[in-house]
Amino acid sequence: MADTSGKRLLDSDKTGEPAPDVKRGKTDNENGREDGNESVQENVLSGFKTSSVLSDSAREKNIFIHGKVADQDAVVILEKTPIREDSLAQLFSGSTLKLEMKNDIYSTYRLQAPPHLNEIKTTVVCPATEKHIKKYQRKESFLVEETEEDYKNITLPHILKQSFSVQWVYNILEKKAEAERIVYEDPDPDVGFVLLPDFKWDQKQVDDLYLIAILHQRDIKSLRDLTSEHVPLLQNIFQKGKEAILQRYNLPASKLRVYLHYQPSYYHLHVHFTKLGYDAPGCGVERAHLIADVIQNLQSNPQYYKTRTLYFPMRADDGLLSKFKEAGRL
Amino acid sequence: MADTSGKRLLDSDKTGEPAPDVKRGKTDNENGREDGNESVQENVLSGFKTSSVLSDSAREKNIFIHGKVADQDAVVILEKTPIREDSLAQLFSGSTLKLEMKNDIYSTYRLQAPPHLNEIKTTVVCPATEKHIKKYQRKESFLVEETEEDYKNITLPHILKQSFSVQWVYNILEKKAEAERIVYEDPDPDVGFVLLPDFKWDQKQVDDLYLIAILHQRDIKSLRDLTSEHVPLLQNIFQKGKEAILQRYNLPASKLRVYLHYQPSYYHLHVHFTKLGYDAPGCGVERAHLIADVIQNLQSNPQYYKTRTLYFPMRADDGLLSKFKEAGRL
Questions:
Q1: Taking a C-beta distance cutoff of 8 angstroms, is the pair B108, A123 a contact?
Q2: Looking at residue B203, what is its pLDDT?
Q3: Is A10 on the interface with B (CB under 8 A)?
Q4: How far apart (Å, rounded) are the C-alpha atoms in residues B212 and B198?
Q5: Do A61 and B44 touch (CB under 8 A)?
Q6: Bridge-partner residues for A69, per DSSP?
Q7: Which residues contact B174 (CB under 8 A, 6 or more apart)?
Q8: Which of A5, A25, A309 is nearest residue B103 as measured by Cβ atoms?
Q9: Which GO terms describe its cellular component (chains A, B) (predicted)?
Q10: Which residues of B are catalytic?
């Protein structure tokens, strides 16, 4: 569910659409190699016809495009990659510079780099449904105030009725997809989880580190379902997630921002691990809840998240927002 | 009224150094062409030796580097350019795609584009002084965990000893400065406040609206001092601030993010009003506290902010961070 501002769109690069059999996906992939020894792909985008730009960000250098790949609707997301320190020497020696302006000690150039040093991260959603297209479209957002009663009367019925599929989450938990991306796993069925990089992170540098811990437990939809009985689960994820990140990426806990979203993008509880100092989309106070605060709040009041009025941003086209409007709550 | 974070460095990519006559700049530029008919420059950066990365942003795809150009100190700023809609067709047809991952309808690629469609904006400051280098340097920050005892034993003594001057705040409250900028005032000595634009907001558009409400009461340093007795004060600021913004800027409460910082930039309680959807510096969950949550928390537990462990980011050069380190708390 949805995100809110244009900038946050990258946050929700999966919708709740029913996911077809992963095997089919693998078959589709037979001309591809996912390891380091990759070969150049047939350019699936060479015949891409743009229908419209759904949104873009000049600050983040990304663009979300709706169009057609061989008569199928597709959403293509392009985002330039961060500049890596370890490529600077090659970049400086191997590029062409074009002078634009010179004034005193300041000069500006356009630098044309060797393509392999200046890649664009490309995500293709194909076939894309109307729902995907809407999802990526920039829409105004509104701050919604959700009381305990609003959750019971408006939000929960909406979630249950929509029955958003989280098949892709189960694919990950069952190692049917993305198994090679798993950074850490605690297999315990009660407090265990799988930790893997978020799609938004290209894993080339820790500056924008972004991992997701997905619970093995399947019956916790969101923050609203948490009570003090879940404190050991949250503590386990927090502690082991931090340890795994220290071990794998050499990043200590004091450099991490660990939080849950409310509303989340999908209703299977998951925890975000991002690098402190990286303005990750969705880390704003209006949507993020530090796991350390969540634990404290549940310890002092087991019903904290069941009873509290919660605030969250909601995009204008979100079905849930209409429900709040119909109920006269906005 | 200071902001702190590294993300804003681009804000200031020129220092306050005196700028020489522009005509001289033009003369320097005689071997360059600024029009479409430009010639390739001698690559002044081909011999650039990197000394250190001063700062970078994975989100904004920029990097600030200190190094040497022919024995002269230089600062080089690289920033990837926004993706342009009018170049998409060429980009799709002319690029090479490398498959990274495929799961169901989602696939990700690394796209290698023709260099002229994927330029990097390059700014060179040369010769650069020590002042330039310091200006572009990012200070790392760390997440600090402050218990009730830490506040009493470390933070509070540090605040009191520093006796940070808030004379500029008193000047505003007494109309000795910035009186013409005041948007709204409630003069009540107990629950009253002055509402005015933050320095970061140029007031040219509401997209990045940013106002500050400063209390008339002078004895509340921060969130840590708040108890349930301050609920009427917070409710008054929240309510009247929203009304004043609706009246002046035609922006309803559902478009606002209203919050306090902990730690604040200065120890005289104030409240931030920013537009929802604008990624205001300091609106991240690690530093911001929604006033609506603060009110609820105090209503259910009058000592909430006196007793709770609070988390906040702190820059490496902050004196308070050293105190936490000395106390073995980091």
A1: yes
A2: 85
A3: no
A4: 6
A5: no
A6: A72
A7: none
A8: A25
A9: nucleus; P-body
A10: 270
Average pLDDT over residues A297-315: 97
Q: Was B263 annotated as part of a binding site?
A: yes
Domains B48-136 and B141-327 share a fold: no
Binary contact (B62, A53; C-beta < 8 A): no
Average pLDDT over residues B250-263: 97
pLDDT of residue A14: 36
**B289 CB within 8 Å of a chain A CB:** yes
**DSSP-derived 3-state class of residue B146:** strand
- A230 has catalytic annotation: no
Residue A261 to residue A222: CA distance in whole angstroms: 8
Q: Is the pLDDT of residue A324 over 90?
A: yes
**Amino acid (one-letter) located at B126:** C
- The pTM score is 0.72
Output b/e per residue, A141-180; b: 16+ Cβ within 10 A: bbbbebeeebbeebbeebbeeeebebbbbbbbbeebbbee
Q: What is the spatial distance between Cα B329 and Cα B275, in angstroms, rounded to a whole number?
A: 36
Q: How would CATH label the architecture of A48-136?
A: 2-Layer Sandwich (3.30)
CA distances from B7 to A45, A92, A197, A210, B62 (A): 34, 24, 23, 18, 10
Domain limits, chain A: 48-136, 141-327
- According to CATH, what is the number of the domain A141-327? 3.30.428.10
Q: For an interface test with B, which of A92, A297, A299 has the most B Cβ atoms less than 10 Å from its Cβ?
A: A92
In angstroms, the CA B228 to CA B191 distance is 14
- B313/A276 CB distance under 8 A: yes
Pairwise CB contact (< 8 Å): B309 & A296: yes
